[in-house]
Every structure is written in structure tokens, then in C-alpha cells.
């Protein structure tokens, strides 16, 4: 059986050779990056803020919290991301989100599971940030749901793709500032009613593609808190990292 599968893989690779997820150069296996693109992705390890996962230049200890979280704690408990959202990784995200590169989901799921291992360890459920039904109709898939399912497969955790509903078709957040983003998603989400009896005391990992200001995941966190969730952590494929100045 193993030899048959290997032979089948050889034939498939000859017909459809695996390509780098970023630059489309030939790679050894599907869902991989070439050496050059891998080296260009800024994966986030330690040290980082214990709350929001913002990377630190100097290790201040495992419980250190960034200035932004000290000024105002986020609604969620912790956030982690696999890599920085920058010029190198932007194409990787956009091709997955808008370019039908859903074949990247398994690799992304592995990266998410590694970056969020501490969040996933005792989590009860994984849930994606939802799309509105009309946007889902036009896009045909929710990239956050694909990430959640791929991550759940690697981590061995149940995934509830429809735990949260987006009840209002909000405009894109792309060109909005922090305050506008917060207003844009205010009241846009709700818990799917059939899950209400099971939420009290649960530990949930919320999955999205990119963490920018946190407005969307905080709006989703509020819904889960109101339903009785004991802990809500956030796991994203990428996060925007801008210089922070303490005030």
C-alpha cells in the first residue's frame, strides 16, 4: 500500500509539480515554501507580550506585558500569531484569502498549531471569525474557517465553524483606522443560538487570518464572554507589528 501511494505521488508530482506557496518555485512537497521565501517570513517566537503576543526586542520575562496592554487590557485573554504581516508575507496572505490558494491551509494549520500550542493545550473548542453570508457567497469560502479546521486537525481539537454569526454585512476594515474599525464591527456578531447552553465555563480559541487593531476579535470575544465563556484566546496566521511608544 505504501509503495502504491508513493508511486501515485510520483506520477502526480510529475503532472502537477508542487510549487512554493509564495513565489511558485518548485518545492519538494505540496504546501511548502522554497528556501528563499521561508527565510523571508518573519515567524514570531519569543520574547513577546504575555497578553497580546506583541514581539519584544529584549526578553523581559515570560509574564511581561507590553505598554499598550498595560494602558488598556484587551477583552481576550491572550493572542498569538505565526508570523509578522509585512511586505514579504502580504502576498502569502492575500493569495490565500482572495486568490483561491486554499491548498495552503494544511501548512498554515501546522504553523498555527505551533504558534498557539500554549493556547490550544487545554482549549475546549476552536472557532473562526465568521464572514457574513453574502460575502461568503461571493468568496465561496471563509479563510478563517479553513485555518481553524486545519489547526484543529493538527492540534486534535474540535472546531465549531458556525459558533459565531456575522449578522451585519460590515464594510471592509482594510482602509479604516482603529476607532473606525471598532465602530464598524460594533454589534455585528452574535452567538449561534443552539450553542448557548454549552458555552458557560468553556475555553475557546478564536482563529482569524490577520490581527491588526484587534477590533474584530474583540467584538467576537465580547459575544463569547456574554455567553459565559471562561477564557477566549486569539490565534492568527499573521499580525501587524508597528512600533509602539509608551505614553
Summary, kept brief:
This protein has 247 residues and is α/β, with parallel strands linked by helices. The protein contains ten helices and six strands, in the order H-H-H-E-H-H-H-E-H-H-E-H-E-E-H-E.
Topology:
Elements: H1 2-15, H2 35-40, H3 67-71, E1 78-84, H4 87-98, H5 105-115, H6 117-120, E2 125-128, H7 133-139, H8 143-155, E3 164-166, H9 178-185, E4 189-191, E5 203-211, H10 215-226, E6 231-239
Helix pairs in contact: 5-8
If you had to describe this structure to a student in words, what would you say it looks like?
The protein is of the alpha/beta class. The protein has two domains: 1-40, no CATH class; 41-239, Rossmann fold (3-Layer(aba) Sandwich). 37% of the residues lie in helices and 14% in strands. The protein has ten helices and six strands, in the order H-H-H-E-H-H-H-E-H-H-E-H-E-E-H-E. The chain has helices at residues 2-15, 35-40, 67-71, 87-98, 105-115, 117-120, 133-139, 143-155, 178-185, 215-226; strands at residues 78-84, 125-128, 164-166, 189-191, 203-211, 231-239. The strands form two sheets. A four-stranded parallel sheet has the order 1-6-5-2. Helix 10 links the parallel strand 5 and strand 6. The longest helix has 14 residues, at 2-15. The protein starts with a helix and ends in an 8-residue tail after the last strand.
Q: Tell the overall outline.
A: globular
Mean pLDDT: 86
SSE run: HHHEHHHEHHEHEEHE
CATH architecture annotation name of the largest domain? 3-Layer(aba) Sandwich
Strand order of the largest sheet: 1-6-5-2
Low-confidence stretches: 4-15
Structural class: alpha/beta
C-alpha end-to-end distance = 63 Å
Radius of gyration: 19 Å
CATH top level label of the largest domain:
Alpha Beta
Amino acid at each position: 500500500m505504501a509503495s502504491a501511494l508513493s508511486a501515485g505521488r510520483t506520477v502526480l508530482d510529475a503532472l502537477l509539480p508542487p510549487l512554493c506557496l509564495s513565489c511558485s518555485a518548485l518545492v519538494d512537497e505540496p504546501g511548502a515554501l522554497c528556501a528563499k521565501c521561508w527565510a523571508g517570513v518573519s515567524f514570531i517566537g519569543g520574547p513577546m507580550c504575555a497578553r497580546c503576543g506583541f514581539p519584544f526586542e529584549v526578553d523581559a520575562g515570560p509574564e511581561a506585558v507590553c505598554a499598550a496592554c498595560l494602558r488598556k487590557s484587551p477583552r481576550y485573554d491572550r493572542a498569538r500569531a505565526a508570523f509578522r504581516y509585512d511586505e514579504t508575507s502580504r502576498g502569502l496572505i492575500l493569495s490565500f484569502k482572495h486568490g483561491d490558494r486554499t491548498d495552503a491551509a494544511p501548512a498554515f494549520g501546522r504553523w498555527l498549531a505551533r504558534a498557539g500550542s500554549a493556547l490550544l493545550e487545554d482549549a475546549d473548542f476552536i472557532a473562526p471569525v465568521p464572514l457574513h453570508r453574502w460575502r461568503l457567497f461571493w468568496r465561496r469560502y471563509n479563510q478563517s474557517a479553513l485555518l481553524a479546521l486545519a489547526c484543529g486537525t493538527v492540534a486534535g481539537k474540535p472546531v465549531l465553524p458556525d459558533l459565531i454569526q456575522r449578522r451585519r454585512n460590515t464594510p471592509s476594515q482594510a482602509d479604516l483606522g482603529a476607532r473606525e474599525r471598532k465602530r464598524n464591527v460594533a454589534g455585528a456578531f452574535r452567538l449561534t443560538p443552539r450553542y448557548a447552553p454549552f458555552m458557560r465555563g468553556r475555553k475557546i480559541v478564536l482563529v482569524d487570518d490577520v490581527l491588526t487593531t484587534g477590533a474584530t476579535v474583540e467584538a467576537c470575544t465580547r459575544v463569547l464572554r456574554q455567553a459565559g465563556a471562561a477564557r477566549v484566546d486569539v490565534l492568527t496566521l499573521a499580525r501587524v507589528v508597528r512600533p509602539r511608544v509608551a505614553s
